[in-house]
Design goal:
Blueprint lengths: L7 H14 L7 E7 L5 E12 L2 E4 L6 H8 L9 E7 L8 E8 L15 E2 L5 E6 L5 E5 L18 E5 L5 E7 L5 E7 L5 E7 L29 E6 L9
Parallel strand pairs: 6-10
Antiparallel strand pairs: 1-2, 2-3, 4-5, 7-8, 8-9, 9-10, 11-12, 12-13
Bound molecules: flavin mononucleotide.
The site of flavin mononucleotide has 12 residues, from strand 2 and helix 2.
Length: about 240
């Protein structure tokens, strides 16, 4: 396809139509991934019977494995992402890991359970980068795609951003919001914790990932008003104090 439509379901419609037109033997065959209550994933093929704004319909036994897993963990179509906390069992000789979900990303206003998340604080989607600072604050950087942002289930989440998470309470607070259609990446702090560096990657990206040479400023002029540029940003508090306090 030359251009991806701006909306996730419209993207699916277009790709599905393309598969039908290509003469696929059964374009309704789809992979359904579920995860059990503990989060271990399993995937199998099912036949898509219908789809629309309410989601994707398939037929199956509700008491089969996938039915049980969907009842325990209804995030089969997880476009929001999550942060998993891993702990090694034992000491240096540990052979196993324990893990849990620190936070499920999403917006509680969404209709689909799997897009609601359980964020305590400022909502976000698509956590991509993490940094743990010396004080124990977990910094979260997000990377939702330009074809998802600011519409549908992402309408209230806004541009990609950086947030600070208190790992003991799970509370999340937004620290900064990036320019339109960028990704926030690569945070690091100076040892004194007073200067933070972050990268703002591909501001003004199009939903097809291809820029139009005739219209380079269509979505963003960040940072200097002309063609959008990726950049590293140094952040300091006005009073020079440690960041995040
Ligand atoms: C092409 C194809 C289509 C399938 N369609 C369905 C389906 O629509 N519904 C279904 O329950 N299983 C379907 N199956 C079987 C599933 O892949 C799976 O083996 C079965 O549902 C048991 O899965 P579970 O134990 O994880 O619940 C299909 C398998 C294939 C290969």
């Amino acid at each position: 396809m030359s251009m991806l439509p701006a909306d996730l379901l419209a993207t699916f419609d277009a790709l599905f139509a393309e598969a039908v037109a290509a003469g696929e033997p059964d374009p309704t065959a789809m992979a359904l991934a579920t995860a059990d209550a503990g989060g271990s994933p399993s995937v199998r093929m099912v036949l898509l019977k219908a789809h629309g704004p309410d989601g994707f319909v398939f037929y199956t036994h509700v008491d089969g494995r996938k039915g049980r897993e969907l009842a325990a963990n209804p995030r089969a179509s997880n476009v929001m992402g999550q942060i998993i906390r891993w702990r090694e069992e034992g000491d240096f000789d540990g052979l196993a890991m324990r893990w849990d979900h620190l936070v499920l990303a999403g917006d509680p206003a969404n209709a689909r359970a799997e897009a609601q998340g359980n964020v305590k604080g400022d909502i976000f989607a698509c956590p991509d980068g993490l940094m743990l600072d010396a004080r124990g604050v977990l910094w979260i950087q997000t990377d939702a795609h330009a074809s998802q942002m600011n519409q549908g289930e992402f309408a209230r989440i806004g541009n990609n951003q950086m947030l600070a998470c208190d790992r003991t309470t799970g509370e999340v607070r937004r620290f900064l919001t990036g320019p339109v259609n960028c990704e926030i990446t690569g945070a690091t702090l100076t040892p004194d914790g007073r200067t933070m560096f972050i990268n703002v990657q591909h501001p003004g990206e199009t939903s097809s990932d291809r820029s139009d040479p005739d219209e380079p400023n269509r979505f963003s002029r960040w940072p200097f008003g002309g063609r959008p540029r990726s950049a590293t940003v140094a952040i300091r508090r006005r009073d020079g104090g440690p960041i995040g306090t």
